[in-house]
Amino acid sequence: MGSSGSATGGFRHKIATAAAALLLMVLPSGVASASAETGVQGPAVSGAIGQLYNTSPWARGVLLRPTGTEQCTYTGCVQKFAGGDIAWSARTGARVVVNGAVRTAWWDLGGPFGSHGYPTTDTASGLRDGGTKQVFERGAIISSRATGTQETTGSTHFAWLRTGSESGYLGYPVTGERAGLPDGGTYQVYEHGFIVWSQASGAHPSMGAIRERWRQSGLEGGELGYPTTDESTGLKNGGSAQQYQRGMIAWSPATGAHALTGAIRAYWSSTGGQNGALGYPVGEENRQGNFVYQQFQGGTVYWSAATGAHSTTHGDIHNRYVALGGAAGSLGLPLTDKLPRAGGLVQQFSKGWLVWGPGTGAQVVGNPTYRVWSENPGDFGWPLRDTWTDYRGEHAAFQKLETIWNKATQELYSAEPVDASTAVFLGDSQLDLDSWAEQGARAAGYPRQVVRSIGGIGYVSGSAVGSATDAVLNDRILLPQGNPGLVVVNLGGNDARIFATDAAILSQANKLWDELRRKYPRSTIVINGVLSRYDSSHFQRRWVDGMLMRETALRGWPHISMAGTATIAGADGNYLDNIHMNQVGHNKVAPLYASALRYVLGR
User: Fold this and answer.
1) Where along the chain do the CATH 3.40.50.1110 domains lie?
2) Is the distance from CB of 590 to CB of 571 less than 8 angstroms?
3) What is the full DSSP assignment across 1-66?
4) pTM to 2 decimals?
5) CA atoms of 136 and 139, how far apart (whole Å)
6) In this structure, are residues 394 and 450 in contact, taking their beta carbons and an 8 Å threshold?
7) Phi, psi (5° rounding) for residue 316?
8) What is the distance between the alpha carbons of residues 312 and 300, in angstroms, rounded to a whole number?
9) Using the 8-state DSSP alphabet, how is residue 112 labeled?
10) If we measure between CA atoms, which residue out of 79, 87, 84 comes closest to residue 64?
11) Distance between CA atoms of 405 and 402, rounded to whole angstroms?
12) Backbone φ and ψ of 46, nearest 5°
């Protein structure tokens, strides 16, 4: 129990009777007798009681003359005076108890043998509003004109002391401590609030707007349970907060008092509470379908069993999300918080992402498309509009290209239009400038061309996107959707450069070729060898060319060997370095390649 509580009148009478009987006992040996003469008229005053009476003008002035002899027990001594008592124990020393409401209540409670024990201070008068108070071993007795005489004991008493006693924010007690709350709890009413106690939570003040919100929740019997801390004041913007067994209440002048519980409370605390981006709560937790949400100064926190707790904080992404219907709208619940990405901001939701870029605003991007975009945003730029769907699939328009996600095939493509007159090239830096391969394809009847050329890549050799094989398999190189007339693979030179093993090249090459056949089942796929000269420095290039040609022959696919073609075309002197030709070199090789391409295509 928080303190001894208010005893019944009969119980108090029994205590007082027992105390009176004890005071008639004879002081045992070993305790000083109060028999020495002090020179005062009436009963003798001696020992510690006499020391206080004889040396304190204030004590003599309020007590006047002794009216009884000192009465002692094993615990201490009491001597009565015309104006009150002096009570002494070895634990507390000698203290004056002045006639009045406090003394009367103390004796009603059994005096030194009752719920409060011996006084630890003298009676203090002249307090606020004419009040009087005295502190005892196990509590205090306080009296004022407005509140009458009340007692405080135990944990409740110490909680009241923490508030500043009668001069603090609770003021004087206006009732005794009352029992009967859930789990054996008690409470005591003060001028400006309450103190509430339970065995599990201890004693804590409850007052003001936070108490009113707690009352609305059902007090200790409601969703929050008992308070487990005193109210914390002096928080950001003049706010305060109090913790409870199953949550907390936060208040500020601008937002009022609102409860926080469960996962939303834990999330809010993890983001910095009132000092974080969310600030104070501005509303209560609300349930909608299978999720709950709560609004704060800086945004909204959402929670569901499936997604956990995440917030949308004020700004373009939050505003766009709200405009789209929030959690009940087209995007569903947030799966992440707002995150920085490539100089912009992104946030994932159950049904897609909001991607914000400088100058482009917040746009919806589908989950599969976002996965590819996020790996290399620079190749795409920022989205310019929300994802939309038509018969071709789910489109996303970026600054540098448009993409299409085909749900049926689980593939992401570029949206560049292709038809039977289109040649799609996948290759390395041999396709730089107006390359021999592009010129040759135009001459062979493919004037529309889509080129994917990345320096450094090969079947095995990699660059920032990895090898060509891995990049195509993982959509880091996006090829166009549709049925182009021709697909040309122009790789192998970088594999020769790094001396990749034959086994590795063939394994990766077959994976890439199979993926291209799956993507373009109705297109003609041509595999080019490795352009080279006949000199010894290009031996490895010629070796890889031959190996690729043998493998494609086994598959029965069209293929064109480029071993020694630069020498045959008379372009040995038209190189920028040992590997890359200048435009003159490309122009010399192009007719030979065009002739070979027409041949393998049967044109």
Assistant:
1) 417-603
2) no
3) --S-----HHHHHHHHHHHHHHHTSPPPTTS--S-S--S-SSS---HHHHHHHHH-HHHHHHH-SB
4) 0.78
5) 5
6) no
7) -60, -40
8) 5
9) G
10) 84
11) 10
12) -145, 180
Size of the chain in residues:
603
Give the C-alpha separation, 258 to 241, whole Å.
10
In 309-319, which positions are buried (b, 16+ CB within 10 angstroms) versus exposed (e)?
bbbbbbebbbe
Q: 344: closest CA among 304, 377, 298, 311?
A: 377
Q: Residue-wise over 340-357: b if at least 16 C-beta within 10 A, else e?
A: ebbebbbbbbeebbbbbb
Q: Which of 232, 163, 156 is nearest to 199 (CA)?
A: 156
DSSP string, 356-414: EETTTEEEEE-HHHHHHHHH-GGGT--B-S--EEETTEEEEEBSS-EEEEETTTTEEEE
283-297 confidence digits (pLDDT tens): 999 999 999 999 999
- pLDDT (0 to 100) of residue 465: 80
The one-letter amino acid code at 175 reads: T
Name the residue with tokens 């890439």: 512
Query: pLDDT tens digits, residue range 136-157?
Result: 999 999 999 999 999 999 999 9
**Which residues lie closer than 8 Å to 11 by C-beta, 6 or more apart?**
none
Cα distances (angstroms) measured from residue 192 to each of 2, 16, 590: 20, 33, 95
Beta strands at 388-390 and 393-397: parallel, antiparallel or unpaired: antiparallel
Long-range contact pairs involving 316-320 (C-beta distance under 8 Å, separation at least 24): 316/345, 316/356, 316/361, 316/362, 317/345, 317/347, 317/354, 317/356, 317/362, 319/362, 320/354, 320/361, 320/362
Cα angle: 592, vertex 463, 525; to 5 degrees: 40
pLDDT tens readout for residues 239-257: 999 999 999 999 999 999 9
Asked whether 508 and 491 are in contact (CB, 8 A), the reply is no
Other beta carbons less than 10 A from residue 448's beta carbon? 17
Which long-range contacts (C-beta less than 8 Å, at least 24 apart) are formed by 581-589?
581/436, 581/531, 582/433, 583/433, 583/434, 585/436, 586/433, 586/434, 586/435, 586/436, 586/439, 587/436, 587/439, 589/436, 589/531, 589/565
Q: Give the amino acid at 130.
A: G
**CATH class of the domain whose range is 417-603:** alpha beta
**Cα→Cα distances 155→5, 139, 188, 192, 407, Å:** 11, 9, 11, 19, 66
Residue 19's pLDDT is what?
43
Rama region for 289: left / alpha / beta (φ>0; ψ in -120 to 50; rest): left
pLDDT 10s digits, 290-341 = 999 999 999 999 999 999 999 999 999 999 999 999 999 999 999 999 999 9
Helix (H) or strand (E) holding 345: strand 344-349
Regions of the chain short of the pLDDT cut 70? 1-41
- Residue 203 token pair: 């004693």
What is the C-alpha to C-alpha distance for residues 587 and 279, in angstroms, rounded to an integer? 67
Phi-psi region for residue 247, left (φ > 0), alpha (ψ -120 to 50) or beta? Answer: left
Q: Which residues, other chains included, contact 103 with Cβ-Cβ below 8 Å and sequence gap of 6+?
A: 84, 85, 97, 123
CA 477 vs CA 376, 471, 473: distances in Å: 10, 5, 8
Tokens of 291: 């999720």
Burial (CB count <10 Å: 0-12, 13-18, 19+), residue 33 = middle
Residue 229: CA count within 13 A, CB half-sphere:
14
On average, the pLDDT of the chain sits at 92
Helix runs in 246-384, H state only: 262-270, 316-323, 367-375
Q: Angle at Cα 360 formed by Cα 405 and Cα 399, nearest 5°? A: 50
Sign of CA dihedral 552, 558, 561, 562: negative
